[in-house]
Amino acid sequence: MDIKADRLLRTLRLRHLELLVVLHDTPTMRGAAAQLHLSQPAISKMLGEVERCFGARLFERSHQGIAANALGAAAAFRARAVLNELAHATADVDAMQRGVNAVLRVGAPSVTATIPAAIVALRARMPGTTVQLKEGRVHELIHLLLERKLDCVFGAITPELMASDLM
């Protein structure tokens, strides 16, 4: 692990990750403060801490609000994935405590003939498994996969998809 990553792990808190996501999704400090139940000065202070941890300015501030720059958008994307992974870990532990062996989050286009058979086969091998199926366009499902909201995606990879920023 490099020095910068080590510093992030020692200094960054989960609340900082939450702040990155909320600020990315909310155009004003006031809105972010309300959403996180903090004061605007507390939000400003936390953002300063986060930017010092990363060693870079992540958001551009103006009298009209706040917007993530390219670095901030990348950091918020990864922060969202980390928070989603933690939510999945909590759900998995809860499921295991209830006797469910695993939770598998699957994304698939709306009419995929192989999915029902695959689910039946999986449940035969792992009876306690819960399968959560998310239907949607492959492009949208891959985005959810990258955000760690899905565990796998079934679908065709088209030339357009290969040329997109998701691949």
Care to describe what's here?
The protein has 167 residues and is an alpha/beta fold. The protein has eight helices and five strands; from the N terminus they run ααααββαβαβαβα. It has helices at 3-11, 14-25, 29-36, 40-54, 70-97, 114-125, 138-146, 159-163, and strands spanning 59-62, 65-68, 102-108, 129-135, 152-153. The strands form two sheets. Strands 4-3-5 form a three-stranded parallel β-sheet, with helices on both faces. A two-stranded antiparallel sheet has the order 1-2. α2 (14-25) packs across α3, α2 packs across α5 and α3 packs across α4 (40-54). The longest helix has 28 residues, at 70-97. The two termini are 26 Å apart.
TL;DR of this structure?
The chain has 167 residues and is an alpha/beta fold.
List the helices and strands and how they pair.
Layout (H helix, E strand, L loop, with lengths): L2 H9 L2 H12 L3 H8 L3 H15 L4 E4 L2 E4 L1 H28 L4 E7 L5 H12 L3 E7 L2 H9 L5 E2 L5 H5 L4
Parallel strand pairs: 3-4, 3-5
Antiparallel strand pairs: 1-2
